[in-house]
């Protein structure tokens, strides 16, 4: 453990959790930086394939042991206690998240932490309500039958977490898995493992038996890959890049693991001519700049009716210029740093690509001087949907604004992408809103508000944005196997 600065005066978690023990890893350490200062926060212990194997064995033992026999009501009580403990440590968790990811501390206080609390409470409620059904059948060689289904845990689940909203995504993967009676091995991201490790300590404090949740920080291509290849892991739930998602699905096929993949997007925000333009500009800007744009559902393709195009571009450029970049712990800061130098360089290279393709920089377009992985919030106008800045996920504060002439063209542009995670529609016309919602190929459609997420709502993407759904009853389905039982009477 290491102590850090006066701002939080906390000890940073830096070890693996296997079978209830906080241990060193056998694969050295991974440096975890503060993205806003580029300084080392802590060298986090890194798991080897051997460590991952021990974590999987601990998880398997609990599945076949006490946890496997724990009633849903008791699992629910534990999940509710976890929610209480996250609530108790809300400020600490928000600080850890800000420190580790580089985001302004007000954002995890407002979103990530309350969402984690709500997610654990939501799934605490499901834990004793995971039912099957009775199904009338035609009988068996003239004899009557009684048939019913039950839902059983999938087994040992490997949860691979990204660095952008790690606390929230850890909750999205852990809460439904535990509610349904699974055991879990969590692989946090190299760049932001701290809030997940703290959450693991809270799970312990809440009375979760040792070994039900194990955490193996470390490298993706070492610890993550070992988890994916492990023959005794039944399912991988992954949120991250399409490239890694593809390798996970290929590797998982070897052992017929189930996979849930959430792979980001290039989500459209459609502004129709009749929209409340002020609300649309504010909401669209949030969809571009929240969390430095490092959001899988970021609304990075802003499709605007030509009659209001100039007004929206101007509004978004103003919103970009109004962002205050700086210290995540300064109350005036509205945008923090990108997570690491690689991500900053990736975003800057897309900004160059946008320029080279002939789009106009309406705001931003560079990086501020000084320390920290900051990039200026950037708006591209005069863009078209074929440009790389309209087709590829940038994962930074960059918006591409594209005009359209009628709603049919808006739908065509919205769907002209390999992704399909989310879409936002800004309009006052109820019929247009629902018509477009039906026509856009996306896992989530939000009308007049970006990212209206809730743990009760299924979450996941169409097309290259992923496979499967998390959260809500769909999250329970994704974490259970259905079994049919038939009695010949
Ligand atoms: P990544 O996909 O490499 O990392 C996500 C997680 O996967 C991390 O925990 C990482 O350690 C793990 N991982 C990496 N290689 C692995 C492997 N071979 N086997 C198993 N696990 C592995 O994403 P990265 O490189 O950090 O970011 C690159 C881009 O990915 C971003 O610019 C963004 O476009 C996208 N991304 C999307 C996210 C989303 O929310 N859908 C989240 C993070 C990144
Ligand atoms: Mg970090």
Helicity level: 25-40%
Ligands in the model, by name, code or SMILES, are: 1,4-dihydronicotinamide adenine dinucleotide, magnesium ion
How many distinct domains?
2
CATH homologous superfamily heading of the largest domain: Aldehyde Dehydrogenase, Chain A, domain 1
Structural class: alpha/beta
The major beta sheet can be summarized as:
7 strands, mixed
Spans of at least 5 consecutive residues with low confidence: 1-8
Family: Belongs to the aldehyde dehydrogenase family.
Active site: 262
Keywords: Oxidoreductase
Protein name: Phenylacetaldehyde dehydrogenase StyD
In short:
It is built from 15 helices and 21 strands. The strands form six sheets. It has a seven-stranded mixed sheet with strand order 15-16-17-14-13-18-19, with helices on both faces. Strands 10-9-8-11-12-20 form a six-stranded mixed sheet, sandwiched between helices. It is globular and about 70 Å long.
Question: Which terms summarize this structure?
Answer:
2 domains, binds magnesium ion, Aldehyde Dehydrogenase, Chain A, domain 1, 489 residues, six-stranded mixed β-sheet, 20% strand, Aldehyde Dehydrogenase, Chain A, domain 2, binds 1,4-dihydronicotinamide adenine dinucleotide, 15 helices, alpha/beta, seven-stranded mixed β-sheet, disordered N terminus, Ald_DH_CS_CYS
């Amino acid at each position: 453990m290491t102590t850090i600065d006066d701002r939080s005066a906390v000890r940073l978690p830096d070890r693996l959790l296997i079978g209830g023990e906080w241990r060193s890893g056998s694969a050295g350490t991974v440096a975890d930086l503060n993205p806003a200062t580029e300084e080392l926060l802590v060298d986090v212990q890194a798991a080897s394939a051997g460590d991952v194997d021990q974590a999987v064995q601990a998880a398997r033992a609990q599945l076949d042991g006490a946890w496997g026999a724990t009633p849903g009501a008791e699992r629910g009580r534990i999940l509710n206690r976890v929610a209480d403990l996250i609530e108790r440590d809300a400020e600490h968790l928000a600080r850890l998240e800000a420190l580790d990811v580089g985001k302004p501390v007000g954002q995890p206080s407002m979103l990530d932490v309350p969402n984690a609390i709500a997610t654990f409470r939501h799934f605490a409620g499901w834990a004793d309500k995971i039912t099957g059904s009775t199904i009338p059948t035609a009988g068996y060689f003239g004899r009557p039958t009684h048939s019913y289904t039950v839902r059983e845990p999938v087994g040992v689940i490997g949860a691979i977490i990204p660095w952008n909203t790690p606390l929230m995504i850890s909750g999205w993967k852990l809460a439904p898995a535990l509610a349904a009676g699974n055991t879990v091995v969590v692989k946090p991201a190299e760049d932001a493992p701290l809030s997940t490790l703290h959450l693991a300590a809270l799970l312990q404090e809440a009375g979760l038996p040792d070994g039900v949740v194990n955490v193996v920080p470390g490298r993706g291509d070492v610890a993550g890959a070992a988890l994916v290849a492990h023959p005794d892991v039944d399912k991988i739930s992954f949120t991250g890049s399409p490239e890694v998602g593809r390798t996970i699905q290929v590797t998982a096929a070897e052992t017929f693991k189930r996979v849930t993949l959430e792979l980001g997007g290039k989500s459209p925000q459609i502004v129709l001519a009749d929209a409340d333009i002020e609300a649309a500009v504010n909401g669209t800007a949030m969809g571009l700049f929240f969390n430095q744009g490092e959001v899988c559902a970021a609304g990075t393709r802003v499709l605007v009716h030509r009659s209001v195009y100039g007004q929206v571009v101007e509004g978004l450029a103003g919103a970009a210029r109004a962002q205050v970049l700086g210290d995540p712990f300064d109350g005036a800061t509205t945008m923090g740093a990108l997570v690491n130098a690689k991500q900053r360089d990736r975003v800057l290279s897309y900004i160059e690509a946008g320029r080279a393709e002939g789009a106009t920089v309406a705001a931003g377009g560079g990086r501020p001087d000084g320390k920290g992985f900051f990039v200026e919030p950037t708006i591209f106008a005069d863009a078209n949907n074929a440009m790389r800045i309209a087709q590829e996920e940038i994962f930074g504060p960059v918006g591409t604004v594209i005009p359209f002439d009628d709603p049919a063209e808006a739908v065509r542009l919205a769907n002209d992408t390999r992704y399909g995670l989310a879409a936002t529609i800004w309009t006052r016309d109820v019929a247009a809103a629902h018509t477009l919602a039906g026509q856009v190929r996306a896992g989530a459609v939000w009308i007049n508000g970006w990212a209206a997420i809730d743990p009760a709502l299924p979450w996941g993407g169409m097309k290259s944005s992923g496979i499967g759904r998390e959260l809500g009853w769909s999250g329970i389905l994704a974490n259970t196997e259905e079994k049919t039982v038939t009695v010949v009477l």
